[in-house]
Amino acid sequence: MKKIIVIMLISIFCPKVQAQQDGYWDKDRAITQELIVSAGERVIFKADDFPIGATELIYRITLLDDNQQLATSLVSLLKAIPDPTGINQGSAGAVFLMSKISGQDKCKYAIFTANDVASTYLKTGKTDQACFVQNKPLSKEAKRLSIEKSLCVQGLKNGLYFGFQSSNWIMKQKIVLEIVPWIDSKLNRGWTLENRKTVINQCKTSALARRMADSDDFCICVEEKIQKKFKYQEFQKLLAIEQAKNYKDFGAICFAETGGSKALIDGYRTKASVFEKKADYRNAIAQYNLIINDNKATAADFSAVGFDLIVTKQYVKAIKFLKEGESLDDTNLAIKLNLAHAYLLNNDFRSARNLYKEYFNQNISDTISWVEKTKADFELFKKLGLPSEDFEKILKLMK
User: What CATH number is given for 261-397 in this structure?
Assistant: First the structure.
């Protein structure tokens, strides 16, 4: 008979078993409790110590006469059903989970998630605040509760209170309650949504992340690697210096994996642009220097830092960087114009004049001409107090 039951169970639930193998029935945390209820009375049993990651519960209630015992434990039956989703295949599945023997006595029961409401039930029999109520007296019951469908499972953190009321007004009753939790392997590691957010937010405060314009992908990568190596509880127990080392080590790996270098350089450019709009050229130059020192500078970067050096009267250094940019892209007319400006302000009128004359009839971009940009730059130079005695001469040359 036992073989027949197991074969039938496998045939019903086998497709689900293959489809989902992300957890296990925790036989080590299984609960078996025998309760004696006096005639017509109520009794409460608190089931607690559920492990982190418990998302399903199977429980079985069996009423026995004094001389009867359970034929098969709930844990042994569940070995044939490693996937909790199989339990919702209809009433047939539930029948297989019941004892092959039960007494004739019956009881009602309810499940609570808080001690105060369970205590109220014990005194008054009120079930209005129960997460599950069975008002029809029965001699045996087997059910599955899932976190998606039951408030009972959502309240597992503080334990569950099973309340039973005897339907026998003459004799005492023996009730056997068995509970087996299903543990989601991923959630069992303690990485809830809030805990993952905590690690990501901590990552965003790191020096490397703060230098990036957008550190989301980088910090998610770091969080995933920490999650894979540690349970959340283990990571929390590390010393602050040990946690910092893990952030640093995984940060170095994720920096390469997520294209962090590009994000970092883009962050420098973004900050430089913000500083330039505020006329804070000193800090803008510092951002471009970070790009140049990392050997990631483009012709446009050299052109921009060259202009910032000009307006801060660092003409020799401006010429040096602009020539480096010119070597990267000899067709970049923004560099050519800035180089002409640097020559002019550094008292090399001849070199400046040759550049101004050579390109005056071209456009710097598709919307700005060489002459228009020259006039705009000269106006800015005047406001900043740069030498302006040769500006009119240059503008006459380009007419």
Answer: 1.25.40.10
Mean pLDDT of 22-40: 87
Q: Give residue 54's pLDDT band: very low, low, confident or very high (50, 70, 90).
A: confident
Q: Which of 274, 269, 271, 277 is nearest to 300 (CA)?
A: 269
User: pLDDT for 351-369, tens place per residue?
Assistant: 999 999 999 999 998 899 9
pLDDT score for 388: 85
Domain range 2-188, CATH class = mainly beta
In the chain, CATH 2.60.120.380 sits at 2-188
3-state secondary structure string, 94-151? Answer: HHHCCCCCCCCCCEEEEEECCHHHHHHHHHHCCCCCCCEEEEEEECEEEEEEECCCCH
Instruction: Using CB atoms within 10 Å of the CB of residue 367, give its burial: 0 to 12 exposed, 13 to 18 middle, 19+ buried.
Output: exposed
Burial of 277 (0-12, 13-18, 19+ CB in 10 A): exposed
Report pLDDT for 97.
Answer: 46
Q: Which residues belong to CATH 1.25.40.10 in the chain?
A: 261-397
Distance CA 262, CA 311 (A): 28
Whether this prediction's pTM lies above 0.90 is answered by no
Q: What is the structure's pLDDT at 1?
A: 43
217 or 80: whose pLDDT is higher?
Answer: 217
Residue of 139, 137, 109 whose CA lies nearest to 125: 109
